[in-house]
């Protein structure tokens, strides 16, 4: 699960709740002001949890102002050092969440994004790290919103250590055929996020998760399934709205895990019998 969805709770509390729910690990929020790499690593290891990936705090890698863009790149370079200290989880990057239009032109800002991300990817390669570009919906960012755009973007960077992060919730908005998007990502699909069409538990919306699991298998996906459900209520960028948010969030995570365990267990049994 994604630790950012628990808001400002201390990491030790988030780790305890995650372990109690029976999850294997986390996508850790890369807020470098909250904990050192050693602290985060020790807390999560003590709870028996793996760090699969890092999600960034907001940084604008496509901003036309060189100073603002440079601050974004500098943050990611620090995040890479943080990841290296953690043992090398995948590092996610994406467009600025909340900026949904170009300040200059799309062509210029896509070129700036490409320059920034290529610099980050090469710095990650020097540290023995891999990076994934997360595809977000149009209501969160204006740069890359579909799998096809992400694949073309990454191919244009000509770096070997960069893949795609596809999210079932975002695909529900942007992809005409989410299952086909997973198949087309193929060799570049390195990370997958799961939440239903309403960003609640798997099974509470209309996403075809059976089809997406089949597509993941056909794409030979071997990474984790990262649950990114969020509590209901206004302002999707604020994870905790009230005291009930934690109750809803834990319920969504538990329901999603139960659904996945049943499906994966059944498939394993079916495959073994054949």
Apparent shape = globular
Q: How far is it from the N-terminal to the C-terminal residue, by CA?
A: 32 Å
> Class in CATH?
Alpha Beta
Share of helix, binned = 40-55%
Global mean pLDDT: 95
Number of domains: 1
Strand content: 5-15%
CATH superfamily annotation: Divalent-metal-dependent TIM barrel enzymes
The low-pLDDT segments are none
Query: Which series of helices and strands comes N to C?
Result: HEHEHEHEHEHHEHEH
How many whole angstroms does the radius of gyration measure?
A: 18 Å
Describe the 3D structure.
The protein has helices at residues 11-21, 37-46, 66-86, 106-126, 147-157, 168-174, 178-185, 209-218, 244-273, and strands at 25-30, 50-56, 90-93, 131-134, 162-167, 189-194, 225-227. It is of the alpha/beta class and 274 residues long. It has a single domain (3-273), classed as TIM Barrel (Alpha-Beta Barrel). The two termini are 32 Å apart.
């Amino acid at each position: 699960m994604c630790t950012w969805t628990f808001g400002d709770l201390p990491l030790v509390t988030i780790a305890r709740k995650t372990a109690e729910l029976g999850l294997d690990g986390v996508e850790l929020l890369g807020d470098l002001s909250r904990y050192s790499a050693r602290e985060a690593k020790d807390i999560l290891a003590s709870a028996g949890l793996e760090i699969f990936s890092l999600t960034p705090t907001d940084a604008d890698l496509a901003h036309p102002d060189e100073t603002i863009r440079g601050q974004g790149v500098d943050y990611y370079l620090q995040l890479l050092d943080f990841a290296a200290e953690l043992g090398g989880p995948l590092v996610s990057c994406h467009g600025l969440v909340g900026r949904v239009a170009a300040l200059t032109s799309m062509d210029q800002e896509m070129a700036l994004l490409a320059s920034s991300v290529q610099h980050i990817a090469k710095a990650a390669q020097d540290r023995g790290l891999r990076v994934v570009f997360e595809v977000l919906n149009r209501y969160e960012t204006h740069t890359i919103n579909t799998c096809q755009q992400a694949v073309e973007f990454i191919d244009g960077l000509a770096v070997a250590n960069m893949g795609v992060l596809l999210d079932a919730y975002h695909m529900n908005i942007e992809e005409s055929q989410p299952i086909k998007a997973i198949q087309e990502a193929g060799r570049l699909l390195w990370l997958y996020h799961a939440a239903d069409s309403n960003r609640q538990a798997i099974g509470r919306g209309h996403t075809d998760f059976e089809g997406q699991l089949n597509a993941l298998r056909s794409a030979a996906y071997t990474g984790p399934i990262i649950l990114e459900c969020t509590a209901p209520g206004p302002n999707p960028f604020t994870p905790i709205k009230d005291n009930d948010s934690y109750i809803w969030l834990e319920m969504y995570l538990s329901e999603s895990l139960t659904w996945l365990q049943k499906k994966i267990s059944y498939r394993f049994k079916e495959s073994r019998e054949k």
